[in-house]
């Protein structure tokens, strides 16, 4: 009985660690692009529509996280949405005005 409880707890912890790693990787995925845009001030190869769709999806994940009371989902997707909103703002600041 004790062994079964211990095994269940370890499996739940493994799933939580997996979720946290996935959340961190997803959240930081756009950071290299944002850093490159800020350094070069070049947004020629970025699609604003893709960013709008991605931000919408991330925002829905945040909402889902609140509905399910899942802090890792809320935090990782909020951070990812913030990074991509910043990237979208950079797009409109640095786009070619001609």
Low-confidence parts, pLDDT < 50 over ≥5 residues?
none
Main beta sheet? none
Distance between the termini: 72 Å
* Total count of strands: 0
Please tell me the overall pLDDT: 88
Radius of gyration: 18 Å
What overall geometry do the principal axes of the alpha carbons give?
Answer: elongated
The total of helices stands at 4
Order of secondary-structure elements: HHHH
Strand content: under 5%
Strand-pairing-aware structural class? mainly alpha
The share of residues in helices is over 70%
Describe what you observe in this structure:
This protein is mainly alpha-helical and 98 residues long. Helices cover 84% and strands 0% of the residues.
Describe this protein with a few key phrases.
84% helix, 98 residues, 0% strand, mainly alpha, elongated
What is this structure, in a nutshell?
By secondary structure, this protein is mostly helical. Helices cover 84% and strands 0% of the residues.
Detail the topology: elements first, then pairings:
Blueprint: H1 2-28, H2 31-40, H3 48-68, H4 71-94
């Amino acid at each position: 009985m004790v062994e079964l409880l211990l095994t269940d707890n370890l499996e739940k912890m493994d799933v939580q660690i997996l979720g946290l790693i996935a959340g961190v990787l997803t959240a930081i995925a756009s950071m290299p692009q944002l850093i490159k845009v800020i350094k070069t001030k070049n947004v020629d190869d970025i699609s604003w529509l893709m960013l709008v769709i991605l931000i919408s999806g991330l925002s829905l994940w945040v909402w889902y996280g609140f509905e399910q009371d899942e802090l890792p989902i809320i935090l990782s997707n909020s951070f990812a949405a913030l990074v991509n909103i910043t990237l979208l703002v950079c797009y409109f600041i640095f786009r070619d005005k001609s």
